[in-house]
Amino acid sequence: AEEASAGATAQRTEAVEAVGGSAIGPGRRPGWDAFLPPEEYRRLGIGGAEGDEDSIGRAWRLSHVNSDFSLCASYPSLLVVPATVEDKTLHAVSAFRSKGRIPVLTWVHPLNGSALCRSSQPLSGLNSRYKDDEALIAAIASAAGHEASNFAIVDCRSRIAAAGNAMMGKGTESAGHYGVNLVHLDIANIHRMRSSFQRLHELHARPHRGPDYLRILEECAWLRHTSSLLRGALACANAMHAHEVSLLVHCSDGWDRTAQVCVLTQLLLDPHYRTLRGLATLIDKDIVAFGHQCRERLGFDKEHGPYSSEWSPVILQLLDAIWQLLNQFPTAFEFNASALRYLALAAHAGRAGQFLYSHDKQREEADVRSTLSSVWPQLEAHRAAFISPAYSA
């Protein structure tokens, strides 16, 4: 199995080098401007010129505390945090969050100001608490214009899974310590999803569908897992839009289920992200820049190939969930199913530079933006093939 994994990884690496991106051109290659943090956050009303911002924009600030990736190697270099919180507090909080992935904002509701934030799990153990972390959560709630009681921490894991992590010195927040609501979504982890996908793949690798097809399909649990992901995102979107609740979403390290839930929540709430250009921004923001482990999950890492314990169909499951939404609300999406299929193929075949590494620190070290192609120019070049005729802006 190890030889097969190494061989597959080598073949994929060769394919990556061969597909549009080995030649070094002057400056940045096309397509890497899908997510420009200052521009996107200005669209959300944050970080504009002084005097241009409304109350939402004044409550938040752009921090360069991670400009050299010393705060968190797997986070973007530019972070959005409450205006009242100093960078020294962010450094202090990073010691209390797994992998240093502190609570930061990824999206804000344009009408009611409710905030969608993300992080990793706290290193709380069985009953530890950290005042700076609690203060940061309180500041996030205040920046969103809410009392702590109108703020919820959304743990994508089950209560049992979170408790298991607590035994290892990690876990989840105490609702009592933080004075907020705590919700568990019970979304399956990467290992259960890998097992589910393998069974699904085996089922569809059969030359013919037998009479037991539907039974085995149900036993694969792929649709059940995708449904739980969609239910979690719908709960988040409903809380923010209908009840003006601000949210902090996390799982364990905050780069798998957290990314999926945040992407789907924003798709439900922000029509810009339902355009082809907006989808590019959203994927490059919440999947790429926020450190989803693309290299490991897609099998491009030499130590964790496509048959390793780190491989998991996180991106494929996310695209499937988006496809489910697209089919239920066809007029709401500018892009079509072909665009999702292209993204799936490009990501898994190594055709897109942003999916070959796990975070921006790695991408900068490898000079990816100057040497490899982004996935988005191909979609734009063949835009007519990826646009839905049913779309109604």
From TrEMBL:
Binding sites annotated in the UniProt record for substrate: N189, I190, C251, S252, D253, G254, W255, D256, R257
Residue stretches spanning the membrane: none
Domain Myotubularin phosphatase, chain residue ranges per copy: 31-393
PROSITE patterns membership: PPASE_MYOTUBULARIN, TYR_PHOSPHATASE_1
InterPro entries cross-referenced by the UniProt entry: Myotubularin (IPR030564), Myotubularin-like_Pase_dom (IPR010569), Prot-tyrosine_phosphatase-like (IPR029021), Tyr_Pase_AS (IPR016130)
GO (cellular component) term, any one: cytoplasm
Entry annotation: catalytic residues: C251
SUPFAM superfamilies: (Phosphotyrosine protein) phosphatases II
Record-given protein name: Myotubularin phosphatase domain-containing protein
